[in-house]
Specification:
By secondary structure, the protein is α/β, with parallel strands linked by helices. Helix content is about 20%, strand content about 30%. The chain is built from 3 helices and 8 strands, in the order βαββββαβββα.
Length: about 150
């Protein structure tokens, strides 16, 4: 077996419409399908769907804070320039989205946010795609503070 790519993520959400607005209107993903009132699918156009949201209701347990097993965050590439990241930051702030971190990973510059259910999402730009393609070890460079 050989994994060829990460196909899609599935997230349980408390309120489908609230999460639908966040991923569709705020982050700008294109909605490609609905599962009635139970779910919604999004795609950037790379594949049939990259994200599926499934509603589980308001009584669902919250994502635990701190160190835990399971998903830490997932990353979404939003471009290749710091200006694109600055524009995203301004949009997030205008929408009242809390930015919980910023980082310069050398090959990427990243903003970290929380979705409406507390899932951490990394929004990043590829600073120098040729560098990590030619030198994969560059991905493990020490993280530095990011100045936008």
């Amino acid at each position: 077996m050989n994994v060829q790519e990460l196909g899609h993520l599935v997230l349980y959400v408390r309120d489908l419409e609230r999460s639908r607005r966040f991923y569709g209107e705020v982050l700008g993903w294109r909605e490609v399908g609905r599962l009635g009132e139970a779910g919604v699918m999004y795609s950037s156009g790379r594949t049939h769907h990259e994200l599926l949201l499934l509603q589980v209701g308001e009584e669902a347990a919250a994502v635990p804070q701190g160190r835990r097993l399971g998903l830490y965050h997932f990353g979404l590439k939003i471009g290749e320039s710091d200006q694109e990241l600055r524009d995203a930051k301004a949009r997030l702030e205008a929408e009242g989205v809390r930015i919980v971190g910023k980082a310069d990973h050398g090959v990427t510059h990243s903003l970290y946010i929380l979705d409406p259910d507390g899932n951490e999402v990394e929004l990043y730009i590829d600073v120098q795609p040729a560098v990590w393609r030619e030198r994969p070890e560059a991905v493990a460079a020490p993280t530095r503070p990011l100045e936008l």
